[in-house]
Amino acid sequence: MSRPLLQLALDHSSLEDAQRDVMLLKDSVDIVEAGTILCLNEGLGAVKALREQCPNKIIVADWKVADAG
Question: Could you tell me which residue ranges the Orotidine 5'-phosphate decarboxylase domain spans (predicted)?
C-alpha cells in the first residue's frame, strides 16, 4: 500500500499570505491547493505563481461555485 499524500489547503484571501505559508511548509507536503477564496480573489495568476514556487508538487485549484455542507 502506498503512503497517503498530505495536502496543504491555502484558504487565504491574498497570494502574498499563501506564498508565505508555502515557503514554510512546501517541503512537508505533497499537494498544494489554491483554495476557493484565493482563486476568486487572485485569479489564475495565483495558480501560476504556486506552480512556479512548487514545480515538483501537485497543484490543485479549488474553484467551487458553492461551499456548503
Answer: 4-69
pLDDT one-digit tens code per residue, 23-62:
999 999 999 999 999 999 999 999 999 999 999 999 999 9
- φ, ψ for residue 46, nearest 5 deg: -65, -40
> Rounded to two decimals, what is the model's pTM?
0.88
Beta bridge partners of 10: 34
Map out the domains of the chain as residue ranges.
7-61
Do residues 8 and 27 lie in contact, with contact meaning Cβ atoms separated by under 8 Å?
no
Dihedrals φ, ψ of 58, to 5°? -75, 130
